[in-house]
Design a protein that fits this description.
By secondary structure, the protein is α/β, with parallel strands linked by helices. It is about 40% helix and about 20% strand. It is built from 24 helices and 25 strands. The strands form five sheets. Strands 18, 19, 20, 21, 22, 23, 24 and 25 form an eight-stranded mixed β-sheet that branches.
């Protein structure tokens, strides 16, 4: 490495020029802790006023103003007058790279570096430095260093393999990484003067070069340019960390604030073949699983925890950091590493709203909701779309029955027509068996084409008021609202006057379902939120688009929409003309079928019960329709299991 690489140390003019461009991340280490905290707060809020900074940091105005004056003088911070005439501050970090310093960047320094030290040295020093290494042999099972011991020696593997071990919840050793030829061990603990986060153990006869910390410290004191070279390498590596995260690791690591972090880690481990490490900051130890490693971080330095997290993520493992709702220095140093923050505090930790990472919440910490969160982290949430229809929608009950028995998770439901009724009742916690029994017993009341027949003036909004069907729905849902459901539900209805499809996802459930069973022209519409709504069967009979907007990962549909006019064929329908309702529904089949195809390509799987011979008014054939649904779902099960088992 040439002397030019270190010229900026010798010539102050070059240093000044660098400060005019902006500072590198590693130069943050030169600042005192109060100054660094102030600078990070500025980057979070910039442009920011003096008063805001003093409030956020809980310091006096005089203290903050004094510190700011020093940072402005040193070139770390710019100050200018905003549009309102108030003086505000902005950090000058990394402006030459066209990027702002993200909140928590100082935690990146706690992550694991691979520092190829020998390659950084000038040729004249390599030989001298290498003389300080000693070649040692380690028998299989021999321990190089133990977790929790201070870093007194670094290692470079010449031959053989070394395992890095931690203990799982049962106190058994858990392999988190295997290091082979050329791998370096213990360098972070040596360079930072910290404790080792792992136990290193030889799995076969290993030849390892070792360097004592005392020898390294002495060498760096004698050759300060070498220390600068290491610093340059760290800076290069830190910049590379800004690259895009791999899709499979986009939600990893995750910080869980509030009770339930350990259980979430266990659900995650139960769903995946990959290793999962729980970093416990709250005493939230879950039950044992073979692929779940446990690290008690309460007594560890945040730097060591950050080293562990980085290595685990790089090796393909999931990392869950479980913390209480209290804001601690240790948590704040680690929270900057998180891709996602899961807030299980139920708003008892308002400080989380100011954290820059993506924030998720859950209605509760029941196994149902924690398992759903784990699937969301893995990007394997399952959305089920039930098509519209009336009598034919009874087939959806058979589909739900098979999916439920096969323990296929459903994380979101979307539907219209009578599919919406069954989707809503299922989302409320009723079992498919209960719903099938009720549908068979109440088939005579389920026809929406019943109740008072509204004949007479053409101004009538519908032929039927569907009173028996709506009364039965009222008895089933009572005062439930969308927010009371166990599974998120989205219902498609059509604005009778505006013509557009509307998604209902909040408010009273009964009013929404009353609109869903309002067949356009046949059943009276429903006034809901100051608009007149009917079923969306003619505009969006298979509302896949709703779950696409909700970003559900796996989309499955059950479609009870046959080919146009299938049930009216002479071989199946006899010689008598259909009644008014049956004829109207049959005439709409072509439009419904065409509309159902618009988002079909976005589905991962479509379950299609064989119900072509059934009229959409044939409620008396409910039991047959349910059985057709069961048959179709059973045939689709192998493909569904393949979708669920595919690793993210």
């Amino acid at each position: 490495m040439s002397d030019e690489a270190f010229e900026w140390v010798k010539e102050d003019s070059v240093r000044v020029a660098r400060r005019q461009q902006g500072f590198s991340v590693t130069e943050l280490l030169d600042l005192s802790e109060p100054a660094r905290e102030l600078l990070i707060e500025i980057t979070r809020r910039e442009p920011v006023t003096l008063a805001t900074l003093a409030t956020a940091l809980k310091r006096t105005l005089i203290d903050v103003e004094t510190q700011l004056s020093q940072l402005v003088t040193q070139g770390w911070v710019d100050t200018f007058e905003d549009e309102s005439g108030e003086w505000v501050y902005r950090a000058r970090l990394a402006r030459d790279r066209k990027r702002l310093l993200p909140p928590g960047i100082w935690q990146v320094l706690d992550e694991r570096w691979t520092v190829p030290i020998l390659r950084l040295f000038p040729d004249a020093l390599r030989e001298e430095f290498s003389r300080h290494f000693q070649l040692r042999s380690y028998e299989p099972g021999a321990t190089l260093f133990r977790s929790g011991t201070w870093g007194e020696r670094m290692y470079i593997v010449e031959a053989g393999k070394i395992q890095l071990l931690v203990q799982n919840q049962a106190g058994e050793p858990f392999v988190v990484q295997e290091v082979g030829t050329g791998g370096m061990l213990g360098e972070i603990a040596v360079l930072l003067g910290e404790q080792c986060p792992y136990t290193a153990q030889a799995t076969e006869l290993a030849q390892v070069w070792t360097l004592d910390k005392s020898e390294l410290d002495r060498f760096l004191r004698e050759h300060p340019s070498v220390g600068l070279a290491v610093r340059h390498e760290l800076s290069r590596h830190l910049r590379s960390l800004g690259s895009a995260t791999e899709p499979s690791q986009a939600n990893n690591p995750v910080v869980v604030v509030g009770k339930g972090g350990g259980d979430l880690a266990r659900h995650l481990a139960a769903q995946t073949n990959r290793s999962v490490m729980l970093v416990d900051l709250a005493g939230d130890q879950p039950e044992t699983l073979p692929n779940l490693a446990y690290l008690d971080g309460r007594g560890m330095h945040s730097r060591n925890i950050a080293v562990t997290i980085r290595e685990q993520v790089e090796s393909g493992a999931w990392v869950v950091i479980a913390s209480s709702h209290q804001m601690t220095d240790q948590l704040m140093r680690l929270i900057g590493l998180a891709s996602v923050i899961v807030d299980l505090t139920h708003d008892s930790a308002p400080w989380l709203r100011a954290v820059g990472a993506e924030r998720w919440t859950a209605p509760s910490t029941t196994p149902l909701h924690l398992a759903r969160l784990a699937r969301k982290l893995r990007r394997r949430t399952v959305g089920l779309v039930l098509s519209g229809g009336y009598a034919r929608a009874m087939a959806h009950l058979g589909v739900l029955d098979i999916l439920n028995r096969s323990q296929v998770p459903i994380d979101a439901l979307a539907s219209c027509g009578y599919g919406a009724v069954w989707a809503a009742l299922y989302a409320s916690g009723r079992t498919p068996e209960e719903l099938i029994s009720a549908a068979i017993q109440q088939a005579h009341n389920l026809r929406p084409f019943g109740g008072r027949l509204r004949l007479g003036a053409a101004s009538r909004p519908g032929l039927h008021d569907a009173r028996p069907a709506r009364s039965w729905i009222q008895s089933m849902v009572g005062e439930l609202g969308f927010s009371d459901l166990e599974t998120p539900l989205y219902l498609a209805v059509a604005d009778l006057l505006g013509g557009e499809t509307v998604c209902l996802k909040q408010g009273p459930l009964f009013s929404a379902l009353s609109a869903c069973v309002a067949a356009p022209g046949l059943v009276t519409p429903v006034r809901y939120d100051d608009r007149w709504f009917v079923d969306s069967v003619l505009s969006d009979p298979l509302p896949v688009d709703i779950l696409l907007e909700e970003r559900t990962d796996i989309l499955i549909a059950s479609s009870a929409i046959p080919a146009p006019g299938a049930h009216l064929r002479p071989s199946q329908g006899g010689t008598q003309p259909p009644d008014l309702v049956t004829g109207w529904l049959g005439a709409c089949d072509a439009v419904i079928h065409e509309r159902s195809l618009q988002f079909l390509s976005h589905l991962d799987l479509v379950i299609t019960p064989d119900i072509a011979e059934f009229s959409d008014a044939a409620f008396e054939r409910t039991q047959e329709l349910v059985e057709r649904g069961r048959q179709a779902a059973e045939a689709a099960l192998p493909r569904i299991q393949t979708l669920l088992q595919r690793e993210e």
